[in-house]
Amino acid sequence: MTGGLPDLKRKPPSGLAHVAGDLVLMAETAAIFGLSGAQAANLRIALQAGDATAAPELARLGLEAPTLGAPPAVGVHPVRALALTVSQTCNLACGYCYAAGGSFGGADTRMGWDVAKRAIDHLIDATVPGGGVKIAFMGGEPMVARDLIRNSVTYANKRGAARAVQVGYSLTTNGTLISAEDAAFFACHRFAVTVSLDGGQAVNDRLRPDRAGKGSFARVAQRLAPLLDHRDRISLGARVTVTPHNLDLPQVVDDIAALGFASVGVSPMISSPTGQGALVGRDFAQLLSAMTECGEAWMTATLAGRAHPFANLATVLGELHRGNPRSHGCGAARDYLAVDASGDYSACHRFVKDPLGAMGDLENGPDDAARAAFLDARTVERQTPCQTCWARRLCGGGCHQEVLHAGRPACDFVRGWLDYGLRSYGRLTAAQPDWFDAQV
């Protein structure tokens, strides 16, 4: 493999830095530096010996390697992104669904207009004029609540205009209920639309049947045409949930791209409320191999000036280039919350009806004390074994919901994927540095 073999070593002996190819990542700052071949070889040996040996070698190279500091003082931010769980029901019955079939373990229900209106009012009223917010419509399957989505957009646009607040919209859908009128509406309001698919027809129908046990692939394929017709005004992508049953990712990406998707992202199933579909043990090594193969296809196409749909490598390369060290893996509870059909806030859309992520209600507003306590407890500085992992500032400790419910079975995979990403970063910056200019 041109990019080199990913490093899957368990429990890295040094948490100060990591060498991938001829690049070194400084763990605490997420800064990346180029080395000569000899320097990289010597530093790699020193890092394998542990911090006591690595620190002097890094100093000899003129690289400061601060250790993990004390947890930062955590302050909550104004909410800038809100997921409206407009439908806690779904017409599909995916066995691995984080929402337990769409209902989050409760009765099937839909959000009422009073809840949606109050949630939008809270969001926009808390935003300074001239600012911007994002509203994501989630489920279950959100298109079950089509009228509520349209009413919410119309109302949010009106309320936003009155306060000079720009509102952006996104939707995550299984794609089976989209109509031409829906697509035109999404295009008019510049939606980002993510369609959940798990592969070609045979694979997708096995993993994503409807409640009667029938496959959903053909229906999705039929409903895509109007979305594709509006690609100039809809940011359209596909999202794959990776289970032990669809680990042939090169084929999965090709099959989904053949439907017309220009962007296909994959996400491993780590935590499943039913236990179905979660990756375990050797699945992660196979996942890494498959993602690396997709990454090589993306790299070959990119270096040749062609587009390739695999989104994950482009995402990690952009994050490496920006070099922003993280204390958390995402914006959950910080500036992103979800509201469910009952009007309760949660840390994100995956924590709906989960007491571990409860963050207040619409009656009293977001619970800032609960948000701050959650963020303080989840900061990477407090997580074990994150404190001694070289990848800590890139992954930020991982997905809060997955870690709280499933622990950290994927750390070796994450390090292996980031190692591959670093090697790819070195190749792309050397061969086509202009690629990064378009990512700003």
UniProtKB/TrEMBL annotation:
InterPro entries cross-referenced by the UniProt entry: 4Fe4S-binding_SPASM_dom, Aldolase_TIM, rSAM, rSAM_sf, Sulphatase_maturase_rSAM
Protein origin, superkingdom: Bacteria
Domain Radical SAM core: 86-222
Keyword Repeat: no
Gene3D superfamilies hit by this protein: Aldolase class I (3.20.20.70)
Family matches, as Pfam families: Radical_SAM
Naturally occurring in which organism (per UniProt): Sulfitobacter geojensis
UniProt entry keywords in alphabetical sequence: Iron, Iron-sulfur, Metal-binding, S-adenosyl-L-methionine
Record-level Gene Ontology MF annotations: iron-sulfur cluster binding; metal ion binding; oxidoreductase activity
Record-linked SUPFAM superfamilies: Radical SAM enzymes
Protein name as it appears in the record: SPASM domain-containing protein
